[in-house]
UniProtKB/TrEMBL annotation:
Entry keyword annotation includes Membrane: yes
PROSITE patterns noted in UniProt: PROKAR_LIPOPROTEIN
Protein name: DUF2127 domain-containing protein
Sorted UniProt keywords: Membrane, Transmembrane, Transmembrane helix
Transmembrane segments: 12-39, 64-85, 92-112, 132-152
Length: 172
């Protein structure tokens, strides 16, 4: 029997799925903006220079670094877009969204400070918003998903239905 047939929604199932869909839309927009607008080749050069690289080395390394950065950004854009499937209630969607958001939340601590310094210098505090919203929001969403998982012991805040065996004979 499919897993979804053994689960019943609770009063938190739809709100949790709706929250994931809403966050996914925001995170796709924020990650796209961060990947293709905020961080460009000059930003990479400035970040590398701020981290101690020579001007020549930074200019030589920036194109490949930017390509890698954008590939990772695209992976997160796709991962976040899959959050739009939350309302299907599929377990694999829950686990994928949890993985995407936990790893995106890690950006809060693994992104070098030079990224934030250069972004703030170029765009002001508004330039920091996409990163704060996507990475910080992913941390909050991850926490909410983990709490629901602990509370209900199933994906999407479902309640498990008792298993019944079709055709089983009752003993007198």
């Amino acid at each position: 029997m499919p897993d979804i047939a053994r689960r019943a929604p609770t009063r938190w199932t739809v709100p949790l799925q709706t929250l994931v869909v809403a966050c996914s839309v925001v995170f796709v927009i924020g990650t796209t903006f961060q990947t293709f607008v905020i961080i460009d080749q000059q930003a990479i050069v400035d970040m590398m220079r701020g981290a101690g690289a020579s001007a020549e080395q930074a200019s030589a390394d920036a194109p490949a670094f930017l390509l890698g950065f954008r590939l990772v950004g695209c992976a997160y854009i796709v991962g976040n877009a899959l959050g739009l499937l939350a309302r299907t209630g599929r377990g694999w969607v829950f686990w994928l969204i949890l993985l995407v958001n936990v790893t995106q939340a890690a950006g809060v601590v693994v992104i070098p400070p030079e990224v934030f310094e250069v972004t703030r210098e170029r765009f002001g505090v508004l330039g920091l918003l996409p990163s704060w919203i996507t990475d910080g929001g992913a941390a909050v969403l991850s926490l909410i998903l983990v709490i629901s998982l602990i509370r209900y012991r199933t994906a999407w805040a479902h309640r498990r239905k008792p298993m019944t065996h079709v055709g089983a004979q009752r003993q007198p």
